[in-house]
Amino acid sequence: MTMRRLMSALSFGIIFFGCSSVPPDEMLGTALQEETHAREMADTVLEAGARARLFGPAVTAYEQLLEVHPNSPQAQEGMFRLATIYNNDIRDFPKAVAMYRSYAERFPQGEKTAVAMFLIGYVYHNELRMLDSAKVAYERFLKAYPNHEMAISAQFELNTLGKPPEDLVPNDDAQTPTVAQGKGGS
């Protein structure tokens, strides 16, 4: 093992095993700082691998929080934020779906469980193009949260599964009455 790898492994071990004495608020704060720093730098980074490396410290910090304090309110926030990083920033959609699903399973009464369940369907539909999985996810969401503010969006997504965007936009050739037609011309 090279000296560099040995030092990296030793540093990780110290950080990881030393975390058990770090309170969850402090761990969440560190993760949020890493995420904020990555977001500030991300505007100029387009390449997927570079974005993943940029958000790597935030991902690691959130994962450590989940490992050390798995049932804390801070872990609940950290898990949702981690799923959002995978979805919006790193664009690793299978991992995003897995994290949103884990959030919903681990925190069934969580503050963002409904949103996580909706986003599972959304990512399946709009990013992964897995229409059968999207349909199941949207139906689960609607069954669990029929009156949620996102229920209308879920129903729309369900109704438009597999339809090309041009089929969803009203056609300009449709017979729409104009002002001239409405004033009793011939």
What's this entry about, in short?
By secondary structure, the protein is mainly α. Helices cover 69% and strands 0% of the residues. The protein folds into 2 domains: 12-92, no CATH class; 112-164, no CATH class.
Overall structural class, as computed from helix and strand content, comes to mainly alpha
Proportion of residues in helical segments: 55-70%
SSE run: HHHHHHHHH
Name the overall outline: globular
Q: Stretches where pLDDT falls below 50 for ≥5 residues?
A: 1-17, 178-186
Backbone CA Rg: 22 Å
Largest sheet: none
- Domain tally: 2
The share of residues in extended strands comes to under 5%
Instruction: Give me the number of helical elements.
Output: 9
**Mean pLDDT figure:** 85
Number of strands: 0
First and last CA, distance: 90 Å
Task: Describe what this molecule looks like in 3D.
The chain is an all-alpha fold. The protein has two domains: 12-92, no CATH class; 112-164, no CATH class. Helices cover 69% and strands 0% of the residues. The chain has nine helices and no strands. It is globular and about 60 Å long.
